Amino acid sequence: MSDNSLRLVWVYPDLLSTYGDQGNALVVERRARQRGLDVTRIDVRSDQPVPTSGDIYLIGGGEDRPQRLAAERLHRDGGLSRAVGNGAIVFSVCAGYQILGHEFVNDQGQRQAGLGLLDVVSTRGEGERCVGDVLADIDPRLGLPQLTGFENHQGVTHLGPSASAFAKVRMGRGNGTGDGTEGAFNGTVFGTYMHGPVLARNPLIGDLLLKLALDVNALPPADDRWYEALRAERIAAATQQPA
Ligand code: GLN
Description:
One of its GO terms (biological process) is regulation of cell shape. The chain is 29% helix and 30% strand. By secondary structure, it is α/β, with parallel strands linked by helices.
């Protein structure tokens, strides 16, 4: 980051924004402005090069065919991988998360190479699609409150040795491997299966991205009353027993 200016890059909104992923960009943008940062948001369509000079990159969820196209184009472009090589922060959701791994199974049933930015491999789950509300405890090293979100995926993601689980599910499937893990991270690269959009439901994850970008341990507090009310409502709804 230079001075007070933050470059926020939203990768491929034309392909990977099926689940209200713009909300994640809006949350990071707003929380950065609340802390006095001068934010430039760069929405990069899939026919444009991914800039390598961003501070934070967001990549969202999508259906199987757009996911294949996005992975092909990101490979060809190379910008996101170069940005990570420069120390950029990446937060990815569902299809975006699978693309950041070594490989996933595409809409044609073929194993397709991901970007290898996270040590994970996604296969096609044999069982029912993972759909529903999730509550999970985020890795305590990240210092974040409980994660809430909504999952909707067929892929199952296996973590390799250099990836840490982002969270452990209390409710829901997460990575779908049956080991209770949800998402993955390594350094400044994060992946999760949580929609919601996840940063609107868990704004302190947005703050974590800002702290990493600013290289600080704390940020001035933000007014979180609306977020807290939404979180309380979602947690109550998720834990309610069916009648
Ligand atoms: N197509 C992927 C899957 O089903 C990702 C879906 C998504 O982004 N929600 O696993």
